[in-house]
Amino acid sequence: GENVEQHPSTLSVQEGDSAVIKCTYSDSASNYFPWYKQELGKRPQLIIDIRSNVGEKKDQRIAVTLNKTAKHFSLHITETQPEDSAVYFCAADSGGYQKVTFGTGTKLQVIP
Amino acid sequence: DTAVSQTPKYLVTQMGNDKSIKCEQNLGHDTMYWYKQDSKKFLKIMFSYNNKELIINETVPNRFSPKSPDKAHLNLHINSLELGDSAVYFCASSLMDNEQYFGPGTRLTVT
Q: How far apart are CA B37 and CA B91, in angstroms?
């Protein structure tokens, strides 16, 4: 089955700096890679996603890159703000009736 | 107009009891899920239903029994609750191979 590794598990950055979270996956059939943000006491919510036919996607301060050959994808947050503080989960979906496999989460703290 | 709703939000019960959590989505999605999130925040899939059919059943004790009466509902019944069942349980829904929408979660505490 699919195995998704996520690093780092915790990340502290100064406000205004960039943050990068990296994930690797094992199943080459995975073709959909969402990123979810979970604020304290709240539900996970999608912030950005990428499909395997695209190498990079950007939405304002958030970008995701995908390297299918190396089987890794990354989340980039620029100009971090205190409200970016949350737990971030990557996931890999191999489509059809296969399950979505989540990474173990990264707790991001943005220090004002 | 809540997309995915769960009841109850909090559930405190004693060991050995039986309890149920209900989930409903009004997004017209064909796939629904149950996840368990433990104290370390790991999101572990338990079950997945597509059009009322069970398609994923992870290694979960058979004390946990999902039931999908229709495409918009997926309930979770737990028998003989144990201390280790304490966690936050999230329901989610999606169209296959697309973004999952999560419910607000049910915090289950077993004493």
A: 11
Cα gap A51→A31, rounded to integer Å: 6
* B33 residue type, one letter: Y
Helix (H, G, I), strand (E, B) or coil at A45: strand
Mean pLDDT of chain B: 93
Question: What pLDDT, on the 0 to 100 scale, is given for residue B1?
Answer: 65
Q: How far is A1 from A100, CA to CA, in rounded Å? A: 11
**Is A68's Cβ below 8 Å from some Cβ in B?**
no
pLDDT of residue B109: 97
> Is the CB of B41 inside 8 Å of chain A's CB atoms?
yes
Residue of chain B with shortest Cα separation from A104: B42
Other CB atoms within 10 A of residue A3 CB: 11
B104 touches chain A (CB under 8 A): yes
